[in-house]
# Entry
Amino acid sequence: MLKLNNINKTYFGAQPLHVLKGINLNVEEGELVSIMGASGSGKSTLLNIMGILDNYDEGDYYLAGKLVKNLSENQAAEFRNKFIGFIFQSFNLIPFKTALENVALPLFYQGVNRKKRNLMAMEYLDRFGLKDWADHYPNELSGGQKQRVSIARALVTSPKIILADEPTGALDSKTSAEVMQILREVNATGITMVIVTHERGIANLTRKIVYLKDGLIESIEENDPDKMDFTKAIK
Amino acid sequence: MFDIDNINEIWQTIARNKTRSLLTAFGVFWGIFILVILLACGNGFNNGLLSQIEGFATNSTFMISSPTTEAYKGYQKGRDWNADMSDIEAIKKIVKGVDMVSPIYSQWTYNGENNVFYGTKGGNFSLKGVMPNYIDIDRCKVLYGRFINETDISEARKVCVLGKKAYEDIIGIDKNPLGMMIKANGIYYQVVGVVEAYNSKVSISGSMSETVILPLTTMQIAYNMGSKFDFFVFTTARGYNTKDLQKEIKNLLRERHDIAPTDEGAFVCFDFEEVFTMFEFLFIGIKILIWIVGIGTLLSGVVGVSNIMLVTIKERTREIGVRRALGAKPGVIIRQVMSESLLLTVLAGIVGLVLGVGIMAIVAGFVNNMPSDDVMFLDPQIGFSAAIAATIIVILSGLLAGVLPAIRAIQIKAIDAIREE
# Structure
């Protein structure tokens, strides 16, 4: 599903910063992978490259069998819209749109008509128990609800892969557990998922943990989340 | 481009900051409003001045003979001379480009005593002897009967055409004047028509409404003028230059009356076209000034819109980044920003346009109903083409205002939404 060959990335500033120094990683279809690392290890940059939000200097990145390299803005937008769903730490819901409108937005950019789009968005909101909140604005929702809205938004286009950047970073432990439960359920439907986190407990709920250190993959650990004690997993 | 979804998207962003949008839009509103008011006022003055000279053939020139100022061929300077009917014929025959020539003889009333009578009712009016074509130069409306015709001239009939005021004063508005006999300076004339001048501001020797008009030949006989007259008017045919014609006519008359070829003082000329052209240039100048001022005001409004939108885009960095991450293509973002600026500008502009036109329509209502004869300000409204031009300018300025913010907006990458502060 996702294949990274020798990805290198340098930020050229006053002091050139070599963030990724040759990343090789395969994520198979339906996998649930977490990327862990200390702050500055390059995990967010890696996720941005996977999400075609950022470009890379060297190497090759294949997404769903297609080489993602030097794409035009339009191509990148289309790729993102079709293949990738994003979940952000700070939700990134558009504040002046209702929950329903937020979820429907990616479909708007696909050119889906209004009726169909609202129907689909409502369906996804319903799936996450937010049907009654459809007409509420983000500032009227709790953190957990916001994240559920943004998960609905990520899923509404039926993407091949979900990229989550610290999805529980802004949530308390109880809602974190709920959100992780939802993400695991989503993964169980066959959608590939990559989660960037620095929380051990979150990583423990994934099947594969990639440890990143100083721009290189330190190790990859297979994990069986079902063995974990759920309450213990999230401290 | 403007389906319900897009309008919704645009409206949401505009309505989010109502006060700011309103203040921004005010700049554009004000620009268009001022432009419309200025244009309408310009037109008002234009119409006012034109109404002063309307009804008069604007391509006409008067020529009056005046004592010579140079000695020539044995004649002393200061000699009186008069053009006569044979000169008129010569001008018609020789000078090309003269459309009409019309000689005029007028008898002024000096002492203010009544000189024109119908029965015992009398009034003080000047007499004017003209040719039939005079009505094409000093245009007037025929209220009763007809104007002087060729037969009147050739037979030197004792007929007259009354000016409207003369008719009203000595005959009375409720009576049909045709066939009545009036006495003017002691001679009886039969009334064949009544005319009303279109315009009382510009006239040759008195307004047509306030004169008794006679056939020129009749008057020449009555006042023992032979074939002489006071002055003549000629009009320039299309495609000819009035100044050239003047020169040719002067040369012809100099030759025929033994006047020195260099004597300019022997003629007094009044070129109506020149005055008219001057007015025209004046108004073109005013119009250019108005557009410059109006567009300038509008431009500052446009800069305001652009400026505020740049700030808005800066504030919306995260939102736009999210949109990009969710699959909005650069074109979509450009279109949205441009549409926002366009909608804001066009709405404000149309309000300004409508309000400006509305206010000036009310003003026009007042001005046009003012009874005064000496209006210098008439019908201050903008024409349809100016309104269309203003609308196009509003649309263009809306697009113009959106260019910089749109460029700024597409520079925002999806990744900017993800970066935490």
About this structure: The mean pLDDT of chain B is 86. The two ends of chain B are 35 Å apart (CA to CA). Chain B has two domains: 4-54+277-418, 60-273. Chain B has twelve helices and twelve strands.
